[in-house]
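seq as requested:
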Amino acid sequence: MQIVSKSKNGIDYVSGLLKEKKTIATKVLFYKVPHEHQVDDLSLKIGRYIKSKGFTQETLETENPKSELTLDSEEFANLIQFIESNHGPLLLGAGKYIAADADLDEALAERMVEIFKNKDARKVANFLIKNKLLNVHSAALIEFARRTTAVKTFEDKVNANETEHEWQKWFQDNDWVLGNEVVEILDDRRIDVSNIADYLVESFDGFVDLIEIKRPEGSLQFWSKEKDHDNFVPHQDLIKAITQVQNYVIELEREMDSAKTQKRLNGSAIVKPRATLIFGRSCDWGADEKQAFRILNAGYQNITILTYDHVLVRAKRSLEHKKPGENQ
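struct tokens:
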């Protein structure tokens, strides 16, 4: 039990021994300075003292300290803030870091984006929570902000008609948008020596599925200009993409008994792989196109076709469900 003592001058204080050697001891004195017309404040004194004969914590020589430093209330408060801001990052070996204070600025925002921008953000957040550097609600807020920014970037990329390479990178960094069916995007994209998918993914049940994307704009068309019996029919561009995905599924199934392939794909098994094709836009579709799309998807057992606008709607709805509450 820590005892609050009172000096001859009536000052309350708590003393402690920080370190003791054979002839030298380091002592800390934490005391309250009373004020008649204002709120009392706290001061901190740290000193190294020569140990006298019959030494105890309360009998250190104080007239001629080896060294001594007294901090007033402002200095002491700033010291606490300094330690709180820098202890964790320095202990973890951070090369660069920004301490968050009341005035969050763009530099802090940029640093947080750098930390949480890729698919390892979940691992980073879990590490911070595990080490009590971040609580669960704060981590959820940061992840929500990151996903909100990602959705805005998605919309900008759609309007800018980005290349397929840029889309591959965006989906790699934001696999959450692919839905709960996808646990993670696998590092290896090779189906076999001749076929490379845009993404091979591990599904929630531990099996390998694949995802193929085509840039949303450019010369690729979703529906043919001419209808068949007043029905919308897929354009040849879409048929070619579907055929490519079907061939990928067949080739992936042929690897189901290959121990080498299974090892290469993080041990995930290959059984009746499913495929998702992300192709084209649907923002200007009417009721007839939407119905034709529903019928089109119903015709494939192991392939799901989505447009970029479907993915965008899915992402926005996911954000609505994931938005942290104010009182969490």
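The mean pLDDT is 81.
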